[in-house]
Write a structure and sequence with these properties.
Layout (H helix, E strand, L loop, with lengths): L1 E5 L15 H11 L3 E3 L6 H10 E5 L2 E4 L13 E13 L6 E10 L2 H13 L10 E3 L3 H12 L6 E4 L19 H4 L8 E3 L6 H4 L9 E3 L16 E5 L5 H9 L3 E7 L9 E3 L11 E3 L21 H11 L15 E4 L2 H9 L7 H14 L2 H6 L2 H8 L5 H12 L2 E3 L11 E3 L4 H6 L9
Parallel strand pairs: 1-2, 2-5, 5-7, 9-10, 12-15
Antiparallel strand pairs: 1-11, 3-4, 5-6, 6-8, 11-12, 13-14, 16-17
Bound molecules: zinc ion (2 copies).
One zinc ion (ZN) binds next to loops.
């Protein structure tokens, strides 16, 4: 059985997040075609109590929203799994400063989440934030504490989050050469990493130590908006619909495909500095790896540049001695590149906000034709053309088909925290070199 899962989100209790209503999430999941969604912040007492009240266990470790009524009850099959993100910090010997690494943790039951909560409390962790900080002395302590959490239940799973971003294991400063440098002996008990919006299986295939890891993709969304929830997800082949079934599939690399944001749209693809940085007067700079200044200092403000995912991936590949070439690498797992459909609608209609009424009206029309957004991505350009022929004006349909054919790019590409800007109708050199067969070929 196939399940599409999105196992990393945040509640209203994580910093900088608005209020989240699970009814809205359930509706959005159904519209997207997401079967199982991570609750976010399940170590936060108030949110956990709320989850306990409104969720009921349908299959072992998977919960439905029992309060959903009326329209939301059209989503009786959607499930929630208990999930949190924690931020682990430690000083790595021989490196200047402390590393800070985000980690997704999945729990099979309220009892196991409660036990983790108590352990963190005993270690002096402040649990008033949805995304708690686990401060450790060194990688030895990171390993011990992580193992202690994993020991709670054989199905507790820890997944290094958005690994290539400045908050992930490979992007954080000071730069590390391997996972073990930070996670210590717990590294052996990790089975999967999250690709994040800035990387995909091709890029991560450059990093030799990831050869034994499953790549999963999640949205890390902070709202149920259609261009956020499910913007990345993973389709698993599970032997049974249960939390243990999902964890088994993750550990056994039973991934049908991940749906990936195009890395070039992600906020940290190239190396650079945004124009709104101090000393920049609105002038941005960004570099593809061959052109980054040797000292990695910004030619405008003189400070260290934010190193992009592409450059960092090539560096890790060198450091770990893989001798791999991006141009000739093929992905170890199935994946598709997607652009949030509501973003394409906004592009069609010339509006900047994908969540605007205008964009959403077109988005809903398309979803009505397909039933769920995932189905749209699963179909070939030819099939999509047939389905939407009577639904959209010709030029709008053509834009959608161009995206399906892989004929799009981002200008500028994402860098230093800003998303890439979608341009439909042409590709960039980077895409034609690295994704020659386009989007649907990876299905
Ligand atoms: Zn994070
Ligand atoms: Zn600068």
């Amino acid at each position: 059985m196939r399940l599409s899962v999105d196992l990393h989100s945040h509640s209203g209790h994580a910093g900088g997040v608005g209020a989240i209503r699970l009814e809205d999430i359930a509706k959005a999941m159904q519209r997207k075609g997401i079967d199982v969604f991570g609750t976010g912040d399940c170590l936060h007492a108030e949110w956990r109590n709320h989850l306990r009240e409104v969720l009921s266990e349908e299959e072992p470790g998977l919960f439905s929203l029992s309060i959903c009524r009326g329209k939301a009850c059209l989503a009786p099959t959607v499930r929630f799994a208990l999930q949190t993100e924690i931020i682990v910090t430690a000083a790595v010997p021989g490196r200047k400063g402390r590393n800070s690494v985000h980690l997704v943790i999945l729990f099979p039951s309220f009892a196991s989440a409660e036990e983790a909560f108590q352990k963190l409390e005993a270690w002096g962790v402040k649990l008033g934030l949805g995304r708690p900080f686990l401060k450790c002395k060194d990688p030895g302590e990171v390993g011990d504490r992580l193992e202690s959490i994993l020991d709670i239940d054989e199905n507790v799973e820890a997944v290094p989050a958005h690994v290539m971003t400045p908050q992930g294991i490979y992007g954080c400063l000071p730069h590390l050469d391997s996972m073990e440098e930070f996670f210590g002996r717990a590294t052996a008990r990790l089975h999967a990493v999250e690709t994040g919006l800035s990387a995909d299986p091709i890029l991560l295939g450059m990093i030799p130590e990831l050869d034994r890891f499953t790549l999963v993709s999640n949205s890390d969304c902070h709202s149920g908006a259609s261009h956020r929830l499910g913007r990345e997800f993973t389709t698993l082949e599970v032997s049974e619909k249960s939390f243990a079934g999902i964890i088994r599939a993750i550990r056994n690399r039973a991934v049908v495909r991940t749906a990936e944001f195009n890395p070039a749209e992600g906020r940290y693809f190239l190396t650079g500095h945004r124009g709104d940085k101090k000393g920049h007067d609105g002038v941005a700079c960004c570099f593809s790896p061959d052109f980054t200044p040797g000292d990695r200092k910004c030619p405008i403000c003189g400070k260290k540049l934010t190193v992009g995912v592409l450059e960092r991936t090539l560096e890790l590949s060198r450091v770990q001695g893989g001798g791999r070439k991006l141009e000739t690498l093929s992905a170890a797992q199935g994946y598709i590149h997607t652009v949030p459909l509501s973003e394409i609608c906004a592009y069609n209609l010339g509006v900047s906000n994908p969540a605007s009424k205008k964009a959403m009206a077109q988005y809903e029309l398309i979803l009505d034709a397909f039933g769920a957004e995932i189905k749209f991505w699963e179909q070939s350009a030819g099939e999509v053309e047939k389905t939407l022929a009577d639904v959209l004006p010709e030029e709008h349909l053509e834009n959608i088909l161009e995206v399906k054919r892989g004929n799009f790019t981002f200008e500028p590409l994402g860098f230093d925290g800003s998303y890439g800007k979608l341009v439909i109708g042409r590709t960039s050199d980077w895409f034609s070199t690295n994704c020659p067969s386009g989007l649907t070929a990876a299905l």
